């Protein structure tokens, strides 16, 4: 028994939830490996609904203070889904954040790639030993069933090594990505004019809407009134927060912009992302869910942005692709994502996203019997 287990034995607490923490370009992924209840439902999307309706207290506990923080991100592993049962996927996952459960997450997929190849605990990943490993290339591949569909992840492992290689990027091939609106003129009604908009006479903003496992509204920094581009200082972030929250409020009800060919649960606006071209590629600032800021270059939005660039004739299928940075990844060389258009299908573009993830720790979380804050809390700054 370690010191924590000894303490727990003396103090009655809820069931322990065990997690492994990682980061991808600075964005956290808290991987729930043990203690999460069994979810009802035949399909992963039904299980996602069950998580939201019956177990949201656990998401809140793990994402919010004092066990998490306002910008925490989570991945709940689901050993059995309808696609693992029929042999189309190796494991399922639900993603969660400050407000609920997303449908795709690139940075967490990159982290999970390493974790799932490294874990040899069959109670966490029952199909681990069935993963295919190519000795010649050193690549292990796994099929991750995310709410948006199956994502194919490739992880390097040196010959003879048991663990993944942290120095080489993990990559994944996403679900078909597509554009639903280009150069859409959005009117900003006077009641919604954001207070700190630099150009107060501006009442119309041009955006693109694209899907990369989740729907993104893409708007350039300049279009939003920031000619100096994406910056990460506190004042500029507060201004971008206000501008993107306003745009989301206006765009969210426009359901016709978020049509998915087969799945109504995927039809909503997840994020407004501010983008900017740079000499080396693109940078961006992603506000997702309840205005959470992604520290990573946002893998699912890289899928959406590559699909958009193909549509615009700026990237070619089979071409070199583009480097994507965030305000955090740009601080360290080689910390961003690369996005490449691999194939064009009738349903959309298959995009390959590459990035690196690292372990940061592991924890066991409990709620003591008399703890008055089992769901944690958030401190919201006035907007
Ligand atoms: O990389 C991504 O796709 C995610 N990161 C946080 C927000 C997105 O879901």
A few lines on this structure:
The chain is of the alpha+beta class.
Walk me through this protein's architecture.
The protein is an alpha+beta fold and 383 residues long. The chain has 2 domains: 3-174 and 359-363, Diaminopimelate Epimerase, Chain A, domain 1 (Roll); 178-352, Diaminopimelate Epimerase, Chain A, domain 1 (Roll). The chain contains 7 helices and 19 strands. It has helices spanning 3-10, 44-54, 56-63, 82-85, 106-118, 234-251, 299-311, and strands at 17-24, 27-34, 74-78, 91-96, 101-102, 132-134, 139-146, 149-156, 170-173, 178-187, 204-211, 215-220, 269-278, 281-288, 292-293, 322-326, 337-345, 348-355, 357-365. The chain has a 19-stranded mixed beta sheet that branches. The relative contact order is 0.17. The model has no long low-confidence stretch (mean pLDDT 94). The protein binds 3-hydroxyproline.
Q: Features of this protein?
A:
single chain; Diaminopimelate Epimerase, Chain A, domain 1; 2 domains; 19-stranded mixed β-sheet; globular; Pro_racemase_fam
Layout of strands and helices, then pairs:
Blueprint: H1 3-10, E1 17-24, E2 27-34, H2 44-54, H3 56-63, E3 74-78, H4 82-85, E4 91-96, E5 101-102, H5 106-118, E6 132-134, E7 139-146, E8 149-156, E9 170-173, E10 178-187, E11 204-211, E12 215-220, H6 234-251, E13 269-278, E14 281-288, E15 292-293, H7 299-311, E16 322-326, E17 337-345, E18 348-355, E19 357-365
Residues 27, 73, 102, 105-107, 288, 294, 296, 298-300 line the site of 3-hydroxyproline.
């Amino acid at each position: 028994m370690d010191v924590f287990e000894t303490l727990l034995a003396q103090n009655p607490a809820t069931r322990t939830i065990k997690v492994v923490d990682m980061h991808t370009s600075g964005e956290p992924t808290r991987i729930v490996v043990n203690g999460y209840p069994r979810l009802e439902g035949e399909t992963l999307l039904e299980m996602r609904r069950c998580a939201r309706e019956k177990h949201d207290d656990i998401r809140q506990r793990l994402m919010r203070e004092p066990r998490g923080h306002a910008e925490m991100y989570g991945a709940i592993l689901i050993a059995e889904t309808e696609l693992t049962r029929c042999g189309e996927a190796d494991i399922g996952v639900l993603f969660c954040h400050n407000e609920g459960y997303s449908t795709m997450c690139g940075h967490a997929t990159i982290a999970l790639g390493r974790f799932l190849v490294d874990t040899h605990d069959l109670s966490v990943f029952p199909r681990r030993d069935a993963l295919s490993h190519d000795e010649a290339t050193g690549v292990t591949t796994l099929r991750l069933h995310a709410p948006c569909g199956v994502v194919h992840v490739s992880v390097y492992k040196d010959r003879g090594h048991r663990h993944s290689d942290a120095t080489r990027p993990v990559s994944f091939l996403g679900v078909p990505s597509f554009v639903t609106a280009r150069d859409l003129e959005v009117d900003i009604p006077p009641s919604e004019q954001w207070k700190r908009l630099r150009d107060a006479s501006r009442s119309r903003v041009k955006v693109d809407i694209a899907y990369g496992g989740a729907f993104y509204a893409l708007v350039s920094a300049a279009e939003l009134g920031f000619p100096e581009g994406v910056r990460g200082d506190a004042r500029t972030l507060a201004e971008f927060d206000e501008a993107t929250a306003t745009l989301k409020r206006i765009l969210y009800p426009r359901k016709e912009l978020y049509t998915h060919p087969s799945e109504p649960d995927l039809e909503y606006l997840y994020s407004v992302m501010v983008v900017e071209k740079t000499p080396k590629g693109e940078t961006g600032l992603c506000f997702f869910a309840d205005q959470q800021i992604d520290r990573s270059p946002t893998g699912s939005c890289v899928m959406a942005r590559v699909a958009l660039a193909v549509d615009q004739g700026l990237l070619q299928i089979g071409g070199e692709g583009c480097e994507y940075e965030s305000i955090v990844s740009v601080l360290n060389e080689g910390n961003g994502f690369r996005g490449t258009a691999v194939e064009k299908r009738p349903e959309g573009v298959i995009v390959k996203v590459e990035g690196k993830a690292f372990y940061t720790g592991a924890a066991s979380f409990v709620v003591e019997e008399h703890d008055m804050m089992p769901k944690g809390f958030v401190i919201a700054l006035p907007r």
